[in-house]
């Protein structure tokens, strides 16, 4: 048997006969049920799993902080460091996290605001050297993606987490903070950056 390529629809008898038989088979032929190859089944199961995962991710009540950053599920892992994960999830050295799991009596920072990761990264005067530009409400998702995809920003986040871990007692509001106010006594050089507030004294108002 010899196979040769020929142009289609140019009045070759054999080619025309094959076309007619193919059309006839679609109408009169016997339906065959062939087993799908394993690669096809694996792809189908993968798509079903991803769709179910996406539905659970969209409707779930947990992980909403990460959902706002990564709304689409994927099998490709995010290239985040441990510190970046702590920062993005809020499961780090923050009063808001300690308070949530009853490890501290208050979620308020010593400066009087809610002590979450965004507070220390954008507004708190203690880790001033590690601040990022404040995000706007309409650009929240873009801000997070830009922050966590930039190598220099991730390094800065790592330094911020280290700073907060080392100075955990200074960022927590003491139990009697309702009648005390903080006074910052000096500035200290940390990692070649000047950062205020390592020494804190509480005075009567």
Descriptive notes:
By secondary structure, the chain is mainly alpha-helical. It has a domain of 94 residues. Helix content is 45%, strand content 8%. The protein is built from 9 helices and 4 strands. The N and C termini lie far apart (102 Å). The C terminus is likely disordered.
Q: What are the defining features of this structure?
A:
single chain, 205 residues, mainly alpha, two-stranded antiparallel sheet, 9 helices, 45% helix, nucleic acid binding
Secondary structure elements and pairings:
Blueprint lengths: L12 H16 L9 H22 L4 H4 L14 H8 L5 H6 L16 H6 L17 H10 L1 H16 L1 H4 L9 E4 L2 E4 L2 E4 L3 E4 L2
Antiparallel strand pairs: 1-4, 2-3
Beta strands, count: 4
Strand content: 5-15%
Number of helices: 9
Mean pLDDT across residues: 81
Give the N-terminus to C-terminus distance in angstroms.
102 Å
Strand order within the widest beta sheet: 1-4
Largest sheet: 2 strands, antiparallel
Q: Roughly what percent helix?
A: 40-55%
Stretches where pLDDT is under 50 for at least 5 consecutive residues are: 178-205
Short synopsis of the structure:
With 205 residues, the chain is mainly alpha-helical.
